[in-house]
Amino acid sequence: MSTTAKRPLKVFLCHAHADRDAVHALYARLTKDGVDAWLDKEKLLPGQDWELEIKKAVREADVVAVCLSKQFNQAGFRQKEVKWALDTAMEKTEREIFIIPARLEECETLESLRKWHWVDLFEDDGFEKLMLALDIRAQTVNASLNFEKKSANEIVQNSNLQLAIAYDATIQGWVQSLEWREGKNGHTSRLVDLTLRLARAMGVSEEKLEDIRIGALLHDLGYMGIPEAILNKPGVFNEDEWKIMRSHPQYAYDMLMPITYLRAAVDIPYCHHENWDGTGYPRGLKDVAIPVAARIFSVVDVYDSLTNNKPYRKSWDEEKTVKYIQEQSGKKFDPDVVAAFLKLIPL
Ligand SMILES: [Fe+2]
């Protein structure tokens, strides 16, 4: 039956003490047919929390089957377990609970339960009719579960989108303050555009491109840790100043790694000064040990730097810059990246 298609229907069996044998037989038959039947003394743990156990079970149930009999009519509602179960069931809305009065024998159907559609288990097709009623209930429960699941997915997707927007705004703020500190304007967006073009030309997947985009945006994030007097020094750096300047990839690493959302973007900020031949910093990585995002970015970074004015030198022309990049293929740069870059020229 379809009650087991998504999750078994939870059915609480409510009965008078005197009917326990007949109800136990019904419990066994329902369980065999894939229904998650709850019969007080079979499934629950009588004891100090007996009342709580019954109320909890009824709250979690999809259906309360009230097993009616002459005994039930005489004693049922005076019996505390029945009272707890039915009072709890009545607290739920009709969408949440479904009561099936199930007559174990020919007897009166109590006034308070008459509005519910009852089944006569003592008739030949009584059990089939009960299963049909449960099947209809199972369809409603599973449809509602699917709806809730879908809604939950939409909420998660929407939250992720909100989170991505918030992070992007934070990143843009960092980039802007870095550009102000360095007295540069717009150079980061040039670098990002060209890095993404080169990465696409090299067949990098769309998924990885987002990490590359963020990594290129934050490539010099580590400059936040460098004193401004050194960062904007007009002349040549002395040895100590170089040492401090060269610590910026490590600063970037220390800032980004604790942020789960940005961790995948760390390759460029941490490794963009590594050289193909192993002479770079901070770790002296060699050839493909350098993350591909950083190998791509470093060509673009050098190209952009050389073709733009600096406080300490005038910009180079295109021809001179391209010649330098070609010369550095296999030294500073990955030869495959240089080859792909040269195909993009003129930009
Ligand atoms: Fe850098």
Summarize the SSE layout with pairings:
Elements: E1 10-14, H1 20-32, E2 36-39, H2 40-43, H3 50-60, E3 63-68, H4 70-75, H5 80-91, E4 99-103, E5 119-120, H6 126-182, H7 187-201, H8 206-217, H9 228-231, H10 239-245, H11 248-256, H12 260-263, H13 267-271, H14 292-306, H15 318-327, H16 335-344
Parallel strand pairs: 1-2, 1-3, 3-4, 4-5
The structure holds fe (ii) ion.
Keywords:
347 residues; alpha/beta; Rossmann fold; 2 domains; 16 helices; 5 strands; disordered N terminus; binds fe (ii) ion
Task: Give a short synopsis of this structure.
The chain has about 350 residues and is of the alpha/beta class. Helices cover about 55% and strands about 5% of the residues.
